[in-house]
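Running log. JK asked me to keep both predictions on one page so they can be read side by side. First protein, sequence followed by its tokens:
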Amino acid sequence: MNGNKNNKKVIRAWAFFDWANSSYNLVITSTIFPAYYSIITTTIAHGDKVSFFGISFVNTALANYALAAAYLIIALMSPVLTSMADHKGNKKVYMKFFTWLGAVSCCCLFFFKLETLELGVICFALAAIGYAGGFVFYNSYLPEIASPDKQDAVSAKGFSYGYIGSVILQLICFVFVLKPEWFGITDLSFPPRLSFLLVGLWWIGFAQIPFKVLPKGSPNFNAAEQRKISSGFIELQKVWRQIKKMTVMKSFLYAFFFYSMGVQTVMLVATSFGEKVLHLPTSSLIAVILIIQLVAIAGANLMSRFSRIYGNVNVLIAVVLLWALMCICAYFVTTGTQFYILAAIVGLVMGGIQSLSRSTYSKLIPQNTADAASFFSFYDVTEKLAIVAGLASFAYIEELTGSMRNSIIALTSFFILGLFMLLKLKRAEYNLIVCQTNTRVNNI
């Protein structure tokens, strides 16, 4: 695979995987589904309380718990899956499995109404598992297809494709949701449910491009290990032992965990906050999320350029500090205009922090290692556990205090912890450079 690094056709095909599945992230987790879910689960008789298999929840808290459970399942599964993929060199098989799981689950959301709440929430969770599971293997391709000097740009390219593809489908769905009369639609629940179906079809359709072009993976087969049920966790422990000796890598993972708790939660609850707390109309929320996606394209590429000038860690420190300040501002937001301005700033740094985090980690992985998928398993497990912790704490605080605003305080603390860890990372990076310099001087 080394000879095929930086192949434009392969990189473009890899980026199309983001094009395919980012429609889920925009339509299902960020715009139409949260608004539709909040509307149909808020009733005159029960307010924002719903019954899920006989247990009462605040509607938005239930959705966040479902997402947290989905990401916890992926965090537990990915060590086994990535180990198997490393040994057999068939990670594309797993990408296909999770893609089909996510796409079919989105299609099944077409049948989601209040009377089928349990089905809807389960399919919502399964779609999240499909999305997150596919990304485990998608991310692990980055060091295989791009050399270290190209990984920032290639990572940004993937996110850019994702934003563009998702916006195109969102606009199509937007027409059905806002102008159902153009198509003779009288059932107002039909346009959003149709959107969920279109997401599934778009997802599985465009995923065929990377499935056709990407290599199946770099084999590192070990029959004895493969027979062990626990081999995935053994592999993960082996990688962790390597990481513990890599001071900068370990510091980065700690920082990434804390600021991801904030970033991912903000992205997943922003629409619910706007609809439930600020009572903003669905059409306005969808429009502003679309603007965020377009701004995020520029943000991902801008951060890539800044990283070449100022270094990855310095840019991450600045971006995380900005995220913390935005959370503080969000606590005091009371009007739609304030929310939209804040959302535009979020869009600028949203794609940048995701893209830069992935490429930074990719650079820290030992080059030409056969365990690339297992190393990225650490990255993905860290991110998934961060999402679980972030969503669960957000939902719990909302249920406990009755207000999403109080949950925002927790998000702010996550970013501050992440910022503190990044500063420690900067110090560790500096100490490593000094140590290497002294070693060279002594050798001379």
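And the second, directly underneath as requested:
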Amino acid sequence: MTLKEKLMFIKENNYQAPPEPFQLVQEMIHNIGSLDAELRDDLIYETLSQWIPGNVLTIYELEQLIPVILDSDHLLYKLGESDTDSVFTRSFSMLLIPPLFTRHNRSPFLSKEQIHQIKKSVFYSLQEERDYRGYDEQKGWAHATAHAADALDELAQCSELDQNDLLNILDLVYDKMTITKRIYSDGEDERLVRPVISVLNRKILSQASVEQWIQRFGEVEKSPEFLPAFRQKNNIKNFLKSLYFRVKFYKADAGLCPVIENTLYKIEKVYYS
């Protein structure tokens, strides 16, 4: 049976794992960047998202997987490329990090050193990622920015991350929401708001520092070219609107709402006159 046939059978049987599944897990991770969207997303990822948080794998096996997921053949694979197929390997390797934390939150197994290694790899990967595609009509979801946002959200909730780490998360969100190459169109703004809310919920950062971070969006250096500046402005507006309603809905730091409003007004007065 091919890998796809094996995983289709497993899916049809409610993701029941075979005896000694680790070899199959290794095969799945080896094919995590498959250009077959059904294999990559519906079968490999969905199976791993069931097995990693569950009790299918031992702690020893999970610890063996972590350095593989983070290595130069997976999370960092051809990092810096844009509009090539390498993004699928990077993006879906990133998407395996939240299930690891789900398992850890249920039954802690990650050491402080492992959490900081994951943090370091996620931060670096997002910082250097240059492929901003969402859904590709031929090859399915790329979504590197959104998948990284999910990993940031998990990290932001970790008590092992300190004030500087949380500030770094905000800086990474800022950098990705002020890009000029593309207008995000596949929910990236909503996904990047989630780690921001998790940062706020930690109650570590001062109100002043968060307000200054929001105000930076209204002071970003604009491109002299129309299209890059237009794309950037739309990304910023969409993100701030998403942040506004998430803050308002959760009543998290509601005092930030006027700051967001004023920043939006500064970005584009015409819509508020």
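Observation for JK regarding the second prediction: The chain has a mean pLDDT of 96.
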